[in-house]
Specification:
The chain starts with 5 loop residues before the first helix and ends in a 10-residue tail after the last helix. Helix 7 (137-152) links the parallel strand 4 and strand 5 (157-162). It has helices at residues 6-19, 31-44, 54-60, 62-65, 68-83, 106-118, 137-152, 186-196, 227-240, 258-266, 276-292, 294-297, 307-310, 312-333, and strands at residues 23-27, 48-52, 90-94, 127-130, 157-162, 168-169, 172-173, 204-208, 248-250, 269-274. With 343 residues, the protein is an alpha/beta fold.
Length: 343
Amino acid sequence: MPIATPDQYNAMLDAAREGKYAYPAINITSSETLNAAMRGFADAGADGIIEVSHGGGSFASGTYVNSMSLGAQAIAEMAYLLAEEYPVLIALHTDHCQADKVDAFIRPLLEVSRERRSHGLPPLYQSHMFDGSAIDLDSNLEISAQLLEEMRALDIILELEVGVVGGEEDGVSAEGTPREKLYTTNEDLLKTVEAIGLGEKGRYMLAATFGNVHGLYKPGNVQLRPEVLRDGQEAIKAEHGEDAWFDYVFHGGSGSELQDIHDAIEYGVIKMNIDTDNQYTFTRSIADHMFTNYEGVLMIDGEIGNKKVYDPRSYLKKAEIAMAEGVTEACVALRAEGRSLLN
């Protein structure tokens, strides 16, 4: 099945909202992690979202080119070719893009989509995230409104962040953020609606924060309060009527308690970003290969090693399968297993 069209992507998000489940949004950086994500979705019988951050795009473009937008374009083009072979719907999304990177990351990709649309093709990516959490809310919403208008014309969905996710993501640190800033307020959410509406100006997803922290931490270090999402939904309903609703995104969820995840879904989360857990699973598999085949992957004391085990394909294939299993587990945890719209 090809990459989801804009109509299919909208249908995916509507189905998740109505069915009280969420899509794993898997950060990828390479052909191996792309294949792992798609295999994981297929094994779970679940539709899913693949996303590329600006750092992932830079990595995918190689150390010589080092272009966040070209790398993201290359990953997307590869996904379009391979997705034809999978029995589930897959949507493409770009992850965190701070204000100073919009012109180098999002807008070049929008230009590619504009060119594709002129030839009757769907946009390259089905959604893009603008992360204005590091700037003041008014500036965040002003840029979000501009991007929403641009994306609406291309049938692309915007994701924005209101609040601050702690920790570090893709080289951008929010370490030391005051704890109260990790929880989006009702006032912030009402201001968001005032600035960009509730869908009438273009569809968007909202990464509201409820104590989320990027990275993986020991139990007790992160205090999630999913009820922040519930209270936000109630606040906008009280102000704008019973049909008012946010499509929430859950960032910084690695290591979260399953109950907190399910509560967040009940309160409107339809997309959950998953990166750190997959990074560990992928690398752990490679580390196991290296330690198990230590004398084969190294030429020790003049020996020649074992080409079969230092061939990158031998360990990257294991890593792909290990990560795919983690993606499938995420689909189960988010209640998306077996719920592909193609079933």
